[in-house]
Amino acid sequence: MKLTILKDHLNEAISHVAKAISSRTTIPILTGIKIDATSGGVTLTASDTDISIQSHIEIEKEGTTIIELRQTGSVVLPAKFFMEMIRKLPSQQIEIEVKDHFQTTIRSGSSEIQLMGLDPEEFPLLPLLEESRTIRIPSDILRTMIKQTSFAVSTNETTAILTGVLWTIDNGKLKFVSCDRHRLASREVNIDLDPSQRFSNIVISGRTLNELNKVLPDHNTLIDIVIADNQVLFKIQSILFYTRILDGTYPDTSKLIQETFQTELSVNTKQLTEAIDRAYLLSREDKTNIVKLIMREDQSIEVSSTSTELGKVTEQINLNSIRGDLLRISFNSKYMLEALKVMDSENIHIGFTGAMQPIIIKPEDGADILQLILPYRTTN
Amino acid sequence: MKLTILKDHLNEAISHVAKAISSRTTIPILTGIKIDATSGGVTLTASDTDISIQSHIEIEKEGTTIIELRQTGSVVLPAKFFMEMIRKLPSQQIEIEVKDHFQTTIRSGSSEIQLMGLDPEEFPLLPLLEESRTIRIPSDILRTMIKQTSFAVSTNETTAILTGVLWTIDNGKLKFVSCDRHRLASREVNIDLDPSQRFSNIVISGRTLNELNKVLPDHNTLIDIVIADNQVLFKIQSILFYTRILDGTYPDTSKLIQETFQTELSVNTKQLTEAIDRAYLLSREDKTNIVKLIMREDQSIEVSSTSTELGKVTEQINLNSIRGDLLRISFNSKYMLEALKVMDSENIHIGFTGAMQPIIIKPEDGADILQLILPYRTTN
Q1: Which domains are assigned to chain A?
Q2: Crossing angle for the helix pair A206-215 and A139-149, nearest 10 degrees?
């Protein structure tokens, strides 16, 4: 392999695949980035076995020559050092030459770096996916759906299936659900798809989806998603992002979600979020996160938290409306805060079915997002 | 104590004193901020015994009423919680009321916070300094002098005196020196002072000076520095910053610094810094930080580092000039990099007296800053 490549383009491709490099891997080849140079361009690949990312650099783009290819070939170079060094090279022109035993020389301006490369044959192959099951959605919607659900996945690895976000497609709708036994987040969106097409039990790690979000471009673009038996592939412009589907069957969470409520209220999202944030500050010091909500006759609620060491925070919030029995209910303020922060409507609707039943939060102007929080049992 | 105060002004004062709050203290009163309300305004004080910072808020400023004082008094409130809560309060108007047993109520908009305050009598008193020995320097110069020397203090607490920066005043010049046995940094500046005035052996913790730098304002202003027997006080607008002088006698470092050299060279600062940065990247992976410099006949130098696992980095740098014997010398690239990064002249002069003698770096256009690095003994 021998080629010259423009630094900015190489840097960009490296930054994409870098998300798949694990610093904790014990497999030496996976600490590297694989570089393949062919007549079609240069492709970088990194993998931590859960996620694999490939980024492609074209020979030419918009009339600019990006790569001058002298000889095709492949090599695996140590990722961390390669990444940092390329960023610091003195010239836009970077020459990479691989000789016998994958001995690699990188030249740029007055710098020369000799690196011991590894055999690309040892690098794991990317899965070959049958592209018959493909959906297409705008990157902005995908990003929002991930943000609105991934925070609520379980961090407990003993029930691995709950560390993922459940994807289902039915009736031309794509739905994400996450649940950690104490709370549930779900978001639904209409997609342009043959309504007869159905997918169920596709569960993707919440951590992986957060990494995917970092690779999604800043501007809105269409993303093709290929769903195979045990892998999902996201095609994001010049990037291919592979991840495996989690094993197991996702529990049926639909029974948790009531449709009729004993009490319903409407409140300004920002006002409630900021009040709970202040109550959370104190409850966090006490390591309980418990916040109490009391409904009042005068169409207001009181949110409060108490710390035996520090004191008490009390917040008054006027409601837009309230209907039904006036309840007292306690909940984990961190969970409530995380749920409220991803609600993008000005006002929200909260439904209660008693002090021991799930709290259901929806935007007032639609039903495509739903957040559920189980209350705490407290003595008062 | 009872008063109303504007949130932004209170926040600013809290952010100043926050630098003196230690999260590791075992003395409960020091986890607090002392608030004193008098007819002259509100004063906040925090202390970690090494550093004490006081910030004053005036009753009125530029025609705006900042504080409405109803009743004078004092209280100590838990710093971390108070700081975070004030930032998040819903209204600019914050009411603080202290009742019996330092029970404190903070009201703002629809929020009410009750806090258990502590007795301000338990808070350590600030030292009373005799203001006879005072120097005045612009904050921009102080900031630069700290930046150019504090990085080279020792981090080894067993020789506590070397963890500080030595201040001396002689011949109307203020000089900072730091030294950790492997390197030395010094910076000198003319100050407007009676030339007969002399100070010696004032040593201030490097860590403290870095904290002081964070409190210095963004715009240039004159700082009064009061130097007492075992304390120094920096007066920065409405802020008083107290720190103790380190005990002990600072070693005489003047003999380390040669005046005549076997070899002298002049080189572009940025080019050398970037080349050493790349060589450092590899040397760091090998955990040695060793970089080798070889002088060549053709008025150039080669800087290189080698890692048994990764490979080799070689950099060619053209010199402006070179005079004397051509040497090969090895040094700690991290130390060299830190020294080069604080040189603010376009070209630097480096002096050598042999492969085992100190390397002396000065700006080409002046002598008020000097960096010294001891070379490594290597076999080749």
Answers
A1: 2-122 (3.10.150.10), 134-244 (3.10.150.10), 257-373 (3.70.10.10)
A2: 150
